[in-house]
Amino acid sequence: MNIDSFFFERTLELAARGRGRTSPNPMVGAVLVKDGRIIAEGCHRRHGDLHAEAAALEAAGSEAGGAELYCSLEPCSYRSPEKLQPPCTERIIAAGVRHVHIGQPDPNPKVSGRGVLALREVGIGVSLSEENEAFWRFNDAFNTRMVLSRPFVHLKCAMSLDGRIAAAGGDSRWISDESARRVGHRFRSERDAIAVGIGTVLADDPELSTRLVEGHSPRPVVFDSSLKIPLESRLVRERGDELIVLAVPSEDVTENFFDVKHRLEQRGVRVLYAEPDSTGKADLSSALDLLYAQGIGSLLVEGGSGLLTSFLKHRLYDRLSAFVAPVLLGSGVEAVGDLGITRAGDGLAFEGVNWFRIGDQQLFDAYRSGWLEELRSNFTVQEAAYVHGTC
Ligand SMILES: NC(=O)C1=CN([C@@H]2O[C@H](COP(=O)(O)OP(=O)(O)OC[C@H]3O[C@@H](n4cnc5c(N)ncnc54)[C@H](OP(=O)(O)O)[C@@H]3O)[C@@H](O)[C@H]2O)C=CC1
Ligand SMILES: Nc1c(N[C@@H]2O[C@H](COP(=O)(O)O)[C@@H](O)[C@H]2O)[nH]c(=O)[nH]c1=O
Ligand SMILES: [Zn+2]
């Protein structure tokens, strides 16, 4: 490992301290280096707190003069009414930092190279990591939201060895054991919202909480075209004021639909109307737009089979995490239904694939094939910030 990679790796370790707490901001880490030695470290701990660069500069005090700064993300360079911290570029310049090493350019259109330009303008050297896949994946939700202007979609399921997410009778408690479910709850705590289909609510009456880990519980979302959600379900009773129900009123909608809608709203539930797809269910693209407009930048889709299959079929997903348990269920609820694929070579492929061992179970974790390329090709950066392939 070269010395730059060593310091960059440390920035990501520091950035991870803000996991699940920085949204809608990214997770960022920074280290200040002098004479080949780290003299100060910083991270963005939670939304609204000091940025990582500012935290490292504060920790270094007057020692920051003449130091090199490594940061996982391009330093911010703008002010706006909703921005809670001043531009880091101003602090870096005022502290007398000599050189800034950047893991990944900031895809926020308000930055995207302007941070680099601001530093260069005053003679600070700036270089960009050439191996930056790890940085793009580390802030997968922030990067996707910034570049594609839609929520990051993370599919998650727990399946048996033979690909079932529930037994034939619909029971799925539990397929994965508590150690794997704890990882699942950590995924929940990292996202803004968590979605299930109405089939899952009727079968499981889920809580969709993060009770097995520390961290926030994302907003629950239920795809429920004709408002079948029971008023006595746990989500309505316990999470009513956070719950979003995505309905698709049909042309022959009954009085009962409006009656249920009214009762849900009385309990604080937000009922939103999605466009119908060709089968009368929620059109996923329009549903994502509705959620995005509610401030939801990342969505964990937990199932069931019908909803997972729709997201896969429409290629509207970015990441898949599948827990595989050492159990066979035979006939049961399939994790993924028909995708219209008839040739093996046309199967949905993945990139950035990782298999993790959790006790006796495996976790498959990967991105949709082409995800990174889609982000990179849709990302526009201030041209002048890039000179000879580095910025
Ligand atoms: N092991 C695991 O990880 C998990 C297991 N499960 C299990 O899965 C089973 C439930 O799966 P399933 O019956 O398929 O139900 P789902 O939870 O997938 O719900 C499907 C229903 O959602 C509604 N819906 C609205 N829009 C869409 C859309 N665009 N695409 C798909 N569905 C949409 C439809 O009902 P409508 O037309 O009325 O709107 C549809 O019938 C349960 O047995 C549960 O225990 C569930 C989650 C995770
Ligand atoms: N059965 C199953 C999962 N099921 C998911 O968890 C939901 C129940 O959530 P909660 O009520 O918070 O416990 C259920 O409806 C489905 O979305 N998850 C897993 O990690 N492993 C499992 O074996
Ligand atoms: Zn900043």
From TrEMBL:
EC annotation from Swiss-Prot or TrEMBL: 3.5.4.26, 1.1.1.193
Residues noted as binding Zn(2+) in the record, renumbered to the chain: 51, 76, 88
Q: Which PROSITE patterns match?
A: CYT_DCMP_DEAMINASES_2
Metal-binding as a keyword? yes
Its pathway? Cofactor biosynthesis; riboflavin biosynthesis; 5-amino-6-(D-ribitylamino)uracil from GTP: step 3/4; Cofactor biosynthesis; riboflavin biosynthesis; 5-amino-6-(D-ribitylamino)uracil from GTP: step 2/4
What residues does substrate bind to? 172, 188, 208, 211, 302
Signal sequence, start to end: none
Q: Which InterPro entries match?
A: CMP_dCMP_dom, Cytidine_deaminase-like, DHFR-like_dom_sf, Eubact_RibD, RibD_C, RibDG_C, Riboflavin_Biosynth_HTPR
Catalytic reaction annotation: 2,5-diamino-6-hydroxy-4-(5-phosphoribosylamino)-pyrimidine + H2O + H(+) = 5-amino-6-(5-phospho-D-ribosylamino)uracil + NH4(+); 5-amino-6-(5-phospho-D-ribitylamino)uracil + NADP(+) = 5-amino-6-(5-phospho-D-ribosylamino)uracil + NADPH + H(+)
Name the residues that bind NADP(+).
158, 174, 200, 204, 225, 304-310
Biological process (GO), any one:
riboflavin biosynthetic process
Gene3D superfamilies per UniProt? Cytidine Deaminase, domain 2, Dihydrofolate Reductase, subunit A
Q: Which residue numbers delimit the CMP/dCMP-type deaminase domain?
A: 2-127
Cofactor info, note text = Binds 1 zinc ion.
Question: What are the alphabetically sorted keywords of the record?
Answer: Hydrolase, Metal-binding, Multifunctional enzyme, NADP, Oxidoreductase, Riboflavin biosynthesis, Zinc
The prosthetic group or cofactor this protein requires is: Zn(2+)
Statement: the UniProt record of this protein carries the keyword Zinc-finger: no
State the active site: 53
PANTHER family cross-referenced by the UniProt entry: 2,5-DIAMINO-6-RIBOSYLAMINO-4(3H)-PYRIMIDINONE 5'-PHOSPHATE REDUCTASE, DIHYDROFOLATE REDUCTASE FAMILY PROTEIN (AFU_ORTHOLOGUE AFUA_8G06820)
Q: Which NCBIfam families match?
A: eubact_ribD, ribD_Cterm
Chain's role: Converts 2,5-diamino-6-(ribosylamino)-4(3h)-pyrimidinone 5'-phosphate into 5-amino-6-(ribosylamino)-2,4(1h,3h)-pyrimidinedione 5'-phosphate.
Its recorded name reads Riboflavin biosynthesis protein RibD
